[in-house]
Specification:
Layout lengths: L2 E6 L13 H18 L4 H5 L8 E8 L8 E12 L2 E10 L4 E10 L13 H10 L7
Antiparallel strand pairs: 1-3, 2-5, 3-4, 4-5
C-alpha cells in the first residue's frame, strides 16, 4: 500500500515565475520518503548518520504535468519497489487535493558500505520499510 504525505507549497518552493522550482519537487518527494521511514519506526538521525551503511540516490527523474503554486495543498504518494538485494527505487505521484496528477518522480537508491563504497545488502529495517509501503513482498 502506498504511503501518502500531505504538504502545502510554500513561497520558498517557487521560482521567479511563481511556480514550484523543478528541483524542489525532488526535495518534497524526499520529505515524503523521510516521513515514511519515521512511520515505519526508523530513527532519521541514526539512519542518515550510520557508519554501517549508506543508501545514496543514484538516479532521479521528474515529469511535470501541471504547475504548482504557493499555497497549493498537495498529496505525495510514495511506492517503493525492491529491485535487488542492494537496490530499490521509489515511484512518487504528486496530486492536488482535487485529485489532479501534477507530477511524477522516481528515485533509485543503492546500499553501500560508506567506508569502501562497495555495495552491500539492504539492512533489515529497510527491507521492513519496503514491505510496509510496497504493493508486493519486498524480498521477491
Amino acid at each position: 500500500m502506498p504511503f501518502s504525505y500531505t504538504r502545502t507549497i510554500h513561497f520558498q518552493d517557487t521560482d521567479a515565475a511563481g511556480v514550484v522550482y523543478f528541483a524542489n519537487v525532488l526535495a518534497m518527494c524526499h520529505e515524503a520518503y523521510e516521513e515514511s521511514l519515521v512511520k515505519s519506526g526508523i530513527t532519521l538521525k541514526s539512519f542518515f548518520s550510520s557508519s554501517a551503511v549508506a543508501i545514496p540516490i543514484v538516479h532521479a527523474s521528474v515529469d511535470f504535468l501541471s504547475p504548482m503554486f504557493c499555497g497549493d495543498k498537495i498529496i505525495i504518494f510514495l511506492l517503493p519497489q525492491y529491485l535487488t538485494s542492494n537496490k530499490f527505487e521509489i515511484a512518487y505521484k504528486v496530486f492536488s487535493t482535487n485529485q489532479q496528477l501534477l507530477a511524477k518522480a522516481l528515485t533509485r537508491h543503492v546500499c553501500i558500505d560508506p567506508i569502501n563504497r562497495s555495495r552491500k545488502e539492504l539492512p533489515k529495517d529497510i527491507i521492513d520499510w519496503l514491505h510496509d509501503w510496497s504493493d508486493a513482498d519486498a524480498t521477491t
